[in-house]
Amino acid sequence: MIKENSFYIKQLKNVVFLGYSDLLSKFIDINSNLKINTFVITSPDQNKKLEKIKKKKVFKNLNNLFRSFIKKNFDIEKTIFISISSRWIFKKSTINFFKNNLINFHSSRLPFDRGGATFSWQILKGDRVHSNTAHLVDEGVDTGPIIFSRNTIYPYDCKIPLDFEIYDKKQLEFFYQSLVKKIIKEEKLRLYNQNNNISSYNPRINSVKDSWIDWNLKPEDLIKFINAFDEPYEGAKTLLNGKIVRLKSAQISSAVGGGHPFMSGIISNKDKDWITINLYDGKCLIVERILNEKNENILKNIKIGDRFFTDSKKLAFAKSIRSKFNTLGLKKK
Questions:
Q1: What strands lie across the sheet with 275-278, from one edge to the other?
Q2: What confidence tens digit (pLDDT) does each residue in 284-322 have?
């Protein structure tokens, strides 16, 4: 509930998670140790990842059936509802139904980086500040008043989305436990309204559509792009001799590089464990994994003098079509 611009709950009994997280089992253990009941409500596509969770319910829509289920099983005023990577859009009537006990977890320094694909966007921008933020849910996307937040710095060796995710999970587990303990103690958590004048929003990224490499990018922007689509994604892709290949485990080097933009994409050197690709400004790209459509590393088959290339139609399509997701996954046009 909200009182005097602060958030708190009297006699917390339940935590209901809405959505999905790899950490749900950890959260359940934390709640169990704190004598709190846990339940998970998820969407059809996310349910595929929750086979081990027993206390759960699947809803495609947050409709009257959903509300009846909540009323029957939970005391809303003694329950905190946590949206975590949920697929639903919360409308005003649904938000009001939760009586201000609906919050969202977001891994950015709100109001910056609202929206999805936070880690890939941070890699693209070179942002090295990590944040866990809990905020009230309103009708906007990640726009509600902030309840609790914690900032840290990504370790130096965090370079690809998987590194960022692993670090975020460690921080989020600690963050969640800290927040729940404060709520159990009935601490009044002061609300801070977000400043929309300095906010930023990033749309969801479709790693299949959006990952085509533009070889005209500056070297420092190119390596950020390739890293942003590395593990756990399929990888940044391009064409080699007319076939789609994906690049992973890449880094920039200044030892041997191209001197003109026309040289970008040409394979200039080869070792048994990596290849060297010309860029420009005296830079080159060293890549250890070149994957074909069967996810096989074809590094040994690469020939010096061949060129990686992406045609303009593929690049234009990636930017011209926005990918949207719902409770069933990627929306079909």
A1: 267-270, 275-278, 284-291, 243-253, 236-240, 308-309
A2: 999 999 999 999 999 999 999 999 999 999 999 888 877
**Are 9 and 92 members of one domain?**
yes
Q: Which two tokens mark 61?
A: 């829509």
* Domain co-membership, 26 together with 87: yes
Instruction: Using DSSP bridges, classify how beta strands 79-84 and 102-106 pair: parallel, antiparallel or unpaired.
Output: parallel
Q: Which CATH number fits the domain that encloses residue 261?
A: 3.10.25.10
264: containing domain: 219-324
Q: What is the pTM of this model?
A: 0.90
